[in-house]
Design a protein that fits this description.
single chain, 117 residues, mainly alpha, de novo design (two linked rop proteins), 4 helices
């Protein structure tokens, strides 16, 4: 797969992940704590792809690297919030397992890209 195809596929994958996170966050309880975590996980989970898209349209290598690092950081944060959701017993593991796995894979991809820059 060439770089353009890889970039397009990863943009699509991160966008689909953002939609999955939005759906997951809508299942959180409508309590003060649930709303706080909903806001956090939605912001970080949707930011992964938004920053990756910006990286693909960056004006310099430094800007590209910065956006990739942000995507990596947001993926790590999203994975953290998914773990908090489970530990706080807001949703069961089986309901978030797929998103946790996908987030881990995205984190690994962005970590790998970042290490090569």
């Amino acid at each position: 797969m060439d770089n353009k195809k890889f970039a397009a596929a990863l943009e699509k994958r991160t966008r689909e992940f953002a939609v999955r996170i939005i759906h997951l966050s809508s299942k959180l309880p409508n309590t003060h704590e649930g709303r706080v975590i909903r806001n956090q996980i939605t912001k970080s989970g949707t930011s992964i792809g938004a920053n990756y898209r910006e990286a693909n349209h960056s004006r310099s290598k430094a800007d590209f690297k910065n956006k990739i690092k942000i995507s990596e950081s947001e993926a790590s944060e999203t994975q953290y919030w998914i773990e908090v959701v489970v530990e706080a017993k807001m949703l069961p593991w089986k309901q978030v397992k797929a998103e946790h796995k996908e987030c881990g894979e995205l984190l690994a991809i962005f970590t790998s890209i970042s290490a090569k820059l």
